[in-house]
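Encode chain A's predicted structure.
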Amino acid sequence: MGTILIIEDELPIANLLKIRFEAEGFKAQIALSAAECLKKIMTAIPDAITLDITLPDCRGFGLLQVLKCNPKTAKVPIIVISSSDEAESAAEIGAVSVISKPIDFKRLLEVLKKVCGSK
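Encoded structure for chain A:
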């Protein structure tokens, strides 16, 4: 299975996602901010990213746009996970899927397996 970068500012949610992803055979890393995400991506490009829209140092939409405009990360599938009503507009920027909070783990895992399960 692939490597997932979880970008989520709420540590309990990030840890829960990491545990669930690893139980399914994925490798998972956590970034609690956009800055931490960008540092981690400079060392290794993940197979997929889950992205919360509300981050402490920037709006997730801005980070999504930065990732989609960077040639190194433009093709990385990004799944937006958010309680924000604005999350649907993430698809217009390039997110492959939008999962609302509370998280439907079955649907999230289906999307992840589809975009990187065979890697």
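The two ends are 5 Å apart (CA to CA).
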